[in-house]
Please model this.
Amino acid sequence: MNRFDYVRPRTVAEAVAAGAEPGSAFLAAGTNLLDLMKIGVARPARLVDLNHLPGLSSIEALPDGGLRIGAQIRNADLAHHAQVVRRFPAVAEALLSGASAQLRNAATVGGNLLQRTRCSYFQDTASACNKRAPGSGCDARGGDNRLHAVLGWSESCIATNPSDFCVALAAFDAVVEIEGPAGRREIPLRDFHRLPGSTPDRETDLAPGELIVALRLPGEAAGFAPHSRYVKLRERTSYAFAVVSAAAGLRIEDGRIAAARLALGGVAAKPWRATAAEAALVGAAPGADAFRAAAGLALAEAKPSGDNAFKIELARRIAVRALILAAAGTPARLPALPASPFAPIPGGLHG
Amino acid sequence: MSLSVTLTINHVPRTIDLDDPRVTLLDLLRERLNLTGTKKGCDRGQCGACTILLDGRRVNACLALAISHDGAEVLTIEGLAQGDTLHPVQAAFIAHDALQCGFCTPGQIMSAVGLIGEGQAGTDPERVREGMSGNLCRCAAYRGITEAVVEATQAMTTQQEAA
Model:
């Protein structure tokens, strides 16, 4: 780990000022940042510690029935918050399917939005990586790339975003509140992460010094609570990143789908909201035929970036599975293994 | 800012001068305070061997900067027993042979204490297994570990009801 200066701001304004200085990085839990510093991928000159700032650690009910979640709320606290469990169950399921209990006790909402890719070439400082060292090339192209992107990738970068939480947030129209040198602004989570294009080092919409202060879940999304699921395929049973995942929500009225939400994880540099699939589901009877057609639309633009064509079919099937489970109804209590694709499907439907 | 950190470690308040902000809680415990029960396995948050309770919550000590946790309360495996009386989780690990080499055991036990405190898993073995999935055991003593955690949960519930 490189040497760095440590600063402990007492207000958000102080944090923003310190964060805007070249070489600064914000320290929340550090579960991702310290890991990357240990392997030399992140080398900040200055850590701006957010852990002693007031005002970033509460969850408030909003007049529209939504929630405003402080950026320093820990993943475990959010996942077990009564209003999240009741009104945004797919968000809770996504959170609990990620990492380990130890990491969820530490990791923060704000930090999760800034989680870096698990691409092994990004993590290996001996490899070429346009994200870590712009212009150096991409050793993942033509390398070991079976887990890389199938949507939205470019010749510069084929990495994926590893977050589970962000997939559910994208599906349910979360909004990110940001404080920065130019004041306060907000941006839909769907627009927060960028596709790589020719600048994969620019991963989010944040400018230097800008700090995520809160996240909002709109009350409108709570309408999907009776039919909301997150499903995640992993290479081991638990404590693993998604190969592919999907967050799905349905509003069912008189036996027809009145509204649908669908986002995919593990497929692109950002959580992938599937709006064409959502539109196609409106008016359809909930069932395997409609869900297969929707999943087809969600992956219509997909193409392999290497030895990963299998992920396209897997993503289709996980999307179908998430929709089937959502249609069957949100369980009263999350299953022992949240988001498992191996859970029996209520009613005996098969994806 | 002077680099000193005040922590309550195993019920004892300590103020420690740091010569470098890079020191993790894990290295502070092992290298500065000689509390070597907390193990360094992967040092990257992947194995759980360094699990401690930080303000009552289980976390990976390898991914926590000591300086950032000024004022916190730390409980390690060394602070768990009451004198010669083992904590119910420690006793259950012995009763169920929940280890072979023992390297991961302090982390397993601290993680189990955290899990039981969280109250999400109860005595459902499937939920216990999932709740303990952040602690790897290369000897694969998982069956004994799960049995021990279930038994300790029952013992602690009975204790609480009796109290």
Q: What stands out?
A: Chain A has 13 helices and twelve strands. The two ends of chain A are 47 Å apart (CA to CA). Chain A has three domains: 5-49, 59-114+161-219, 222-348. The longest strand of chain A covers residues 244-253.
